[in-house]
Amino acid sequence: MIVHATLDHEFFSELRTAPAPGGEALHEETISGDLADLLEEAYVRAVLAGLLHEEYEELYARFTPQFAVPPYVTAIGLELETRRAGESARSSTAFASGRWARRAERRLAALAEAGVVHEGTRAHLALHARRTGGAAEDLGLRAPMPPRIAQATREECGLLSLGAGELDPRRPVLVHERMRAAILSETIAAGANETGGSVLGKIVRLPEPLAGTDTPIVTLLTAALPDRRHAGAPGRLAYDPQALVDARELARLRGMGESVLSAYHSHGWGCGKCNSDSRCPLPEATLVSGDDYQVLEALFPSKAALLPIAGRRMGAAGTAPVLVIHAWVGGRTEQVTWRTYDDRVAAGHDRAEAGNDPVRPSEEALLR
Questions:
Q1: Residue 154, number of CB atoms within 10 A of its CB
Q2: What element of type H or E holds 333?
Q3: Which domains does the chain have, with CATH numbers?
Q4: 220 touches 203 (CB < 8 A)
Q5: Sign of the CA dihedral with 160 first, then 166, 170, and 171 last
Q6: Which pLDDT belongs to residue 326?
Q7: pTM score, two decimals?
């Protein structure tokens, strides 16, 4: 697999005292090293959407600035084309964020600590582009690898009953009801302390797309493996690498074609008004912290990875925690829609609507 890249601009990230082009620059850095990250995400998402070949002979990538007031840009455009056996497929996307944004947050904190800016000062992040004659191959862009996708029927996947939620037409995600219930029960039991575990799952290609979706490629999150070795404190969680290794062995023993696709964690629960009181000190499940990003990128570097977080969400119906699933979208993680499923034809009374009813701790063994 060969990558051909076209890049006639170099991109830079700035921290400014006012929105660009106003104010003064506090810090500037090239973000050329982040382009490989954008390439991988764009390719993986296009494969999952069925737009690009999983296996290709040549991949053509063209990075272009989307100018606002030159030289400042609103986003980095990326056009991809895969070629295989005389056939080609194309996709395009744009990135307004990336690893440079997370580095900028850390840089701002360092400037505040050094007294260069006052603590609490809000800096403005800007991107700008400069035309260059440098060769794109100097970036060292590697050929992105597709996620592992298996062939399976709905029956083989256990998709016998679909429950609450919605599916993204281009990135359908399904979560087993027992997994959802196990995570929320664990969140309630842990209280304000963060807790976590491994997430088993698989990416499959069904014979035909599910209703309302455009791609037959579906991500299934099949089981949660809570592990006390991941237990933390309020606002803090540290994953134990050995627990993730053990989870891979459990996935093998289950014999269901699963792998450890991700890890979940909670953001705390139990103040009594978690979903209705903005004064609750616990972070919402909708928030992804800098630490969360570091864990996700270190342990699950594939851009197909999902990040489930359980906890409170302002305005959520009912008095139970909710499960929010984040995915890579445009160089950052964003909430994605998903739907529950069950491998029983009728789940009936034991299915709690997603986040709306109190979750009863299950007596059913997780490992079958």
A1: 16
A2: strand 332-335
A3: 2-139 (no CATH), 149-350 (3.40.140.10)
A4: yes
A5: negative
A6: 98
A7: 0.88
